[in-house]
Amino acid sequence: MKKVKTGMGRRSFIKNVSLVGGGLLIGFNWLACKQAAEENGGEVAMQMPDEWFELNGYLKIGDNGIVTIYSPNPEIGQNVKTAMPMLVAEELDVDWSNVIVEQAPLNLDVFTRQLAGGSQSIRQGWEPLRMAGATAKQMLLSAAAKEWEVPVSELSVDKGIISHKASDRSIGYGEIAKAATKIEVPKEIELKDNSDFKIIGTSRKNVDAKKIVTGKPLYGLDSYEDDMLIAMIVQPPAFGMEFKSMDATKAKEMPGIKDIFTIDTYPEAMEREWSDVAAFSKLVVVVGESTWQVMQAKKALNVEWDLKPDLTHQVQILEKSPGMEETGGLENSDMHTALMNDAGPAKSEVVRKDGDPESAFKNAARVIERSYSCPFLAHNCMEPMNFYANVTDEKAELLGPIQTPEFAEKSVNKRLGFELDKIDVQMTRMGGGFGRRLYGNFLVEAAVISQKMKKPIKLVYTREDDMANGVYRPAYKVSYRAALDANNNITAFHVNAGGITESPLFANRFPAGAIDNYLAESWTIDSSISTGAFRAPRSNFIAGAEQSFLDELAEEVGKDPIQFRLDMLKRAKNDPVGEENDYDPVRYAGVLELVRDKAGWNNNNSTSSKGVAAYYCHNSYVAQILEMDLKDNEPVIDKVTCAVDCGIVVNPDAAKNMVEGGTIDGIGHALYSELSFKDGAVQQNNFDSYRLIRHREAPKKIDVHFVENGIDPTGLGEPPFPPVQGALANALYKATGKRIYKQPFLPEITAESRELKT
Amino acid sequence: MAQFDVKINGKKHSVDVDPETPLLWVLRDNFKLVGTKYGCGIAQCGACTVHFNGSAVRSCQVPISAVEDNEITTIEGLSENGDHPVQKAWLEHDVPQCGYCQAGQIMAATALLKNNPSPSDSEIEEVMNGNICRCGTYNRIKAAIKSASQTV
């Protein structure tokens, strides 16, 4: 057992506990109540208790033994709403079928890091969530021991029933919960050994699944209040443009329209949070009774737009972050390509240098050099951006899909001037996040609109608004050079990477550490197009590029691509170059060996074209082997085998689902997706022009295997996405005989085959 | 604006709206049947799929004036207790990730199985190709449809 001090730098936990000790309930308001009531009257067969007892901010126990566990983090489809409460339930030793899960609102007095991003929810919640369960269990045990006048050490617990064998007594959590609230919070508690887990490591169904398949209101867009109005925005038609004037006479007279005005979401004087990214601060807003009426009025508006001044100015921010510099100018995709070919690399800065790469390249028997690029991407959460806001003179109530409620609350504090305790941010289940909802401009817009209307409003983006609103995955480019000696040993490696508006470089990742002479350089280009984090930021491109280059290198030196990587990892393990390497070569090799075995890489008789890739990001390791054939010049993917090392897998079947989805999402974006620009305007603004992977194009089979090593859990939402792009590129090479250097891949394949035909 | 009397999930509803208003927005804004989702508004994503006399249609493309006395079924009316074989198969395979597109997926799948109780893989792919899932749950959707096809 592992002893943990409950204090351990966790101000929030202790603060929360003392709050509860003082008899204060946490303010779960109308959303949670509504959902619970609905569940109560619906299919949940549980008998609701007459009374609840809060032992700490993470859970409450009903007098009948039912336990409500609050899931602290935003749910964007990564299934933390199931997995995080599983951690609490494990240490509480309660029967999972007696657990009700509720989404917690933002409450930093109780919870830490209520954020969906960086695949960190489980990793960073691993200890605090188990501690919450263990602390409550300890208090329940102490209360029972006190009542029976026996030592705590003589008690045992199974599924929420405390027993004292010697006296043959037992009592349910529900019966002792009231007494437990009087017990002092233990200063130290014991966490279970991994071998004692009963819930962690077993597959539990998505706690919202029944509501999802029956169409219950769960998402921000499903919020309706009786006197609520619908608001929509009209934004400039291109990046680099801004509002000039409008004639709303006709639109204002249309049925159901309440008002049309402009707002400035982020006035220049406002100090922004890092998450306050908005390409278009000044917006036209149309408010009306129904969504369709507002959509029609938008079309009837006459708005004139101006060019933004063609100069860069720094927006006032707390932390430096990409996308925060506003630049004028109307940009084109051709121009982006040219900048990434010349002006960008010309201002490269050295980020890491090992040995003497210059001499090694000079003395090389031959040098292999390849460049890779990718376009901007839109996040395209299936649920478009939206938020409910009810701002009165006294308080600001905000409800909807947001990955960063903490920062959103601060933004509202700064924009509206409300004190933090007058701002209530509630999270709905989200129809996807993928990084887009880290940036809460739509939430701030909703708050500003509600304040102006003095009414509750729901701000709704159309798909077109959503896709043209910015914070895109940046366009990236990377060039690799490898120096080979006469014996085909790699003597030097050079990576030069950059992008608009950030570089995808991770200078300390593999193959850094495996090559004596290593040079990593980075550059960025400013743009009027706003960019931000997109599922597996930076890795979502550079993994595929790096793994394609390594594949080509393996071929050049005549080695099996897996053995080639394993040999390099062996070097990184036995005699690492440099001290900054951020990966564990043993775990890296582990997933490669596992995927090799599971896919039968060395004894697979299928005639399919196969490609392999492996990558480390978000503290986890993923290797994939993709098998495909070409049919009418389009890839048909038969199978992807995935080997994943993310430490302990909390909810295996759901984790498998995540790996399957990440694999499909990675393939789709590499093959099909692209956001291009003409005179600052997006050339794709809905799914007729922006291509996302569809059912028919998904791999026919995805096999997922996890490394079992008992290490504390690491990330899973992002790691499966990046490497499969490399596996795909490498398989495509086997199928077509052509290396592909540019995303999206599909037009490259079809262009090649068009050339072959003519 | 005009008065429309329509039957949704076997229940009569009355509404006074612009005749061009898509069924999607009447369901959501007026009847608060929010299981039918907005995703694109141009019949490209399938999130708004409902049954129109038993056939799968994109409700963003059906003006309320076209509903007349035709039978409309939404995800809320698919079964009394959420126990339609397709819904059960979805739970068995724990299909959803974010879940937003799943009501549309289920409505498309139930219409498919009604017409073709044991579809082949390629028949499933063909019909379900109109429903986008950004989370990438396609393989589980297919598995759930195949499970359900044995019980429908």
Keywords:
heterodimer, A: 758 residues, alpha+beta, Aldehyde Oxidoreductase, domain 4, seven-stranded mixed beta sheet, globular, B: 152 residues, DNA polymerase, domain 1
Q: How many helices of chain B in DSSP terms?
A: 5
**What is the mean pLDDT of chain A?**
91
Distance between the termini of chain B: 41 Å
Please tell me how large the radius of gyration of chain A is.
28 Å
Q: Note the main sheet of chain A.
A: 7 strands, mixed
Q: How many strands, which pairing sense, and closed or not: the largest β-sheet of chain B?
A: 5 strands, mixed
N-to-C order of helices and strands of chain B: EEHEEEHHHH
- At CATH level 2, the architecture of the largest domain in chain A is 2-Layer Sandwich
Strand content of chain B: 15-25%
Q: Please count the beta strands of chain A (DSSP E, at least 2 residues each).
A: 31
In which range does the helix fraction of chain A lie?
A: 25-40%
Number of individual domains of chain B: 2
Q: What is the CATH topology of the largest domain in chain A?
A: Aldehyde Oxidoreductase, domain 4
User: Could you please say which CATH topology of the largest domain in chain B applies here?
Assistant: Ubiquitin-like (UB roll)
How far is the first residue's CA from the last residue's CA of chain A? 70 Å
| Strand order in the sheet with the most strands of chain B | 2-1-5-3-4
What class would the helix/strand composition of chain B place it in? alpha+beta
CATH architecture of the largest domain in chain B: Roll
